[in-house]
Amino acid sequence: VFRAQRFRFSEEPGLGEEGAMLEVRVPQVLHLQYGMYVWPCAVVLAQYLWFHRRSLPGKAILEIGAGVSLPGIVAAKCGTEVTLSDSSELPHCLEVCQQSCQMNNLPQVHVVGLTWGHLSLDLLALPPQDIILAADVFFEPEDFEDILTTVYFLMQKNPKVQLWSTYQVRSADWSLEALIYKWDMKCVHIPLVSFDADKEDIAESALPGRHTVEMLVISFAKDSL
């Protein structure tokens, strides 16, 4: 059972011109799997893409742990070459990725099964990416190392790739940054106010609400060499 949920991204009109607007629909699936809902982090990451949409056309973008794929769909609507991925062990999640593409008339978007930490044929076959999107994938601490293993592999293909990631602050007991440094990566915290995401209702939705969401840009520490 699913219903469509609408998100409408817009900007204030400039002097003498109409403001840009983008409407996206994604399925909301009544299912126990985490990936079947739009989480606060996804809306914040989608807003970051919308804010930077003029720099996106032509870029190769991969969303990992995509689920309903709101950020990836926004990226595709902004003129990028998008690949959506979720665990190859969760075919239902991959079906939802496909459903999101169909609802937004995006037949050109690829959907592949990628399981974090596994060196699969689909991962090997991926062309170099410019941006990796990850909304709230840093959820279960036991997954962090597998996620960064996969990201590190993609950084070997293109050392200039960036991981654009949002995560919801739930616990002070773990540090993602220590792991990032271990994997020869660096991260920059992006203030939400800098891309109009410092509010409770982004894209005419009730998200992110009062949840504390962090926006990170993670890159290879050696990318300046």
From TrEMBL:
It catalyses: L-arginyl-[protein] + 2 S-adenosyl-L-methionine = N(omega),N(omega)-dimethyl-L-arginyl-[protein] + 2 S-adenosyl-L-homocysteine + 2 H(+). One of its GO terms (cellular component) is male pronucleus. Belongs to the methyltransferase superfamily. METTL23 family. It is an enzyme of class 2 (transferase). It holds the Pfam family Methyltransf_16. Interacts with HSPA5, HSP90B1, TUBULIN, UGGT1 and UGGT2. Interacts with TET3. Interacts with STPG4. This is Histone-arginine methyltransferase METTL23. Its main location: cytoplasm. Histone methyltransferase that dimethylates histone H3 at 'Arg-17', forming asymmetric dimethylarginine (H3R17me2a), leading to activate transcription via chromatin remodeling. Maternal factor involved in epigenetic chromatin reprogramming of the paternal genome in the zygote: mediates H3R17me2a, promoting histone H3.3 incorporation in the male pronucleus, leading to TET3 recruitment and subsequent DNA demethylation. GO terms for biological process: cognition; epigenetic programing of male pronucleus; methylation; positive regulation of transcription by RNA polymerase II. It is found in: Cytoplasm; Nucleus. It comes from the Eukaryota. One of its GO terms (molecular function) is histone H3R17 methyltransferase activity. Its EC number is 2.1.1.319. Keywords: Chromatin regulator, Cytoplasm, Developmental protein, Methyltransferase, Nucleus, S-adenosyl-L-methionine, Transferase. PANTHER family: HEPATOCELLULAR CARCINOMA-ASSOCIATED ANTIGEN, HISTONE-ARGININE METHYLTRANSFERASE METTL23.
